[in-house]
Amino acid sequence: MPRVGYLGYSAPALERNLLGAFRQALRDLGYVDGQNIEIEYRSAEGKLERLPALAAELVSLKVNVLVTLATPGALAARQATNTVPVVVASMADPARDGLVASLARPGGNITGSTFLGPELIPKRLALLKEIVPGASRVAVLWHPGVYSERTMGDMVKETETAAQRLALRLQFVGAAGASDFDRGFAAMSSDRADALLVFPSPMLYLEHRRIVDLAAKHRLPTVYPWREAVDAGGLCAYGTNIVEQMRHAAGYVAKILKGETRRVARRAADEVRAARQREGREGPPPHNPGLGAGASGSDH
């Protein structure tokens, strides 16, 4: 029976909606856990440092494919194997993070989707200024170190450049976990922030309901990078639907289990190029702009 390894970032309760969407999408494609596939679950419980050991443990179980939510899990999986296909639901920037060689010829064993990390931040900030035209101080909630130094640096640089153009003063507020939120929002209030921009991060996404509540409590108009935040009562989002990306990941898994690894790689690379073209012409990106690398060491 084929075995799928699922490497979770946070507590299973927080990822329940994502796991549910992933398992249902697999079911719709004819793969049912316990019947014709076996899914092995491992969770880092919100601790990034646990991911490499958990990824190695899943690889040792001889999984046919390894699935993870975001870039931190992908980086851990890359350390654990260069042969087992790895599907990542939502990466920031795979090339900048060193997960693939390039978008044109990714190579390697990693495939999945990207939310075009640094590139969309200026548009979110411009949208925030449009919503709150009188804003002069904007707080930025971010998770330091969650992506590579290059990707994080590009996110900060893109935000600072856009802020200069919009005559906004930024206040970067770091949060390594949910326990930092109360202190962070207190700092925003102390600095008299007029609005809030939330950076992408798997931890921030999984805690988006609490962030929405705190933003409302502190009366901070906020732009998020995920549509689910708006579903939870947030003001506005510009970006991807992570649940939809998890369903898309199930499609990649099904193709890999059928032995279609090269087709997966070609399709994913084509999707990210098309997504970038649409993003430039039409505004918000689709829910699941794909980016792929050839699984099992294949390339184009």
Describe the structure.
The chain contains eleven helices and eleven strands. With 300 residues, the protein is α/β, with parallel strands linked by helices. The chain folds into two domains: 3-116 and 242-297, Rossmann fold, CATH 3.40.50; 118-240, Rossmann fold, CATH 3.40.50. The protein has a six-stranded mixed sheet with strand order 2-1-3-4-5-11. Helix 4 packs parallel to helix 5. The longest helix is centred in the C-terminal third of the chain and has 22 residues, at 261-282. The two termini are 29 Å apart.
SSE inventory with pairings:
Layout: E1 3-8, H1 16-28, E2 38-43, H2 51-60, E3 65-70, H3 71-80, E4 86-91, E5 110-114, H4 117-131, E6 137-142, H5 149-165, E7 169-174, H6 181-190, E8 195-198, H7 202-206, H8 208-217, E9 222-226, H9 227-231, E10 236-240, H10 242-257, H11 261-282, E11 290-291
Parallel strand pairs: 1-2, 1-3, 3-4, 4-5, 6-7, 6-8, 8-9, 9-10
Antiparallel strand pairs: 5-11
Question: How many individual domains?
Answer: 2
Q: What can be said about the biggest beta sheet?
A: 6 strands, mixed
Q: Helix content range of the residues, please?
A: 40-55%
Give the name of the CATH architecture of the largest domain.
3-Layer(aba) Sandwich
Q: Note the overall shape.
A: elongated
Q: What is the succession of H and E elements? A: EHEHEHEEHEHEHEHHEHEHHE
End-to-end gap:
29 Å
Kindly estimate the percentage of residues that lie in beta strands according to DSSP: 15-25%
Runs in which pLDDT lies below 50 for 5 or more consecutive residues are 263-300
CATH fold name of the largest domain: Rossmann fold
Category by helix and strand content = alpha/beta
Q: What's the alpha carbon Rg, rounded to whole Å?
A: 19 Å
What is the arithmetic mean of pLDDT? 86
Overall strand count: 11
Strand line-up across the major sheet = 2-1-3-4-5-11
**Count of helical regions:** 11
Could you name the CATH class of the largest domain? Alpha Beta
Look at the structure and name the CATH superfamily of the largest domain: Response regulator
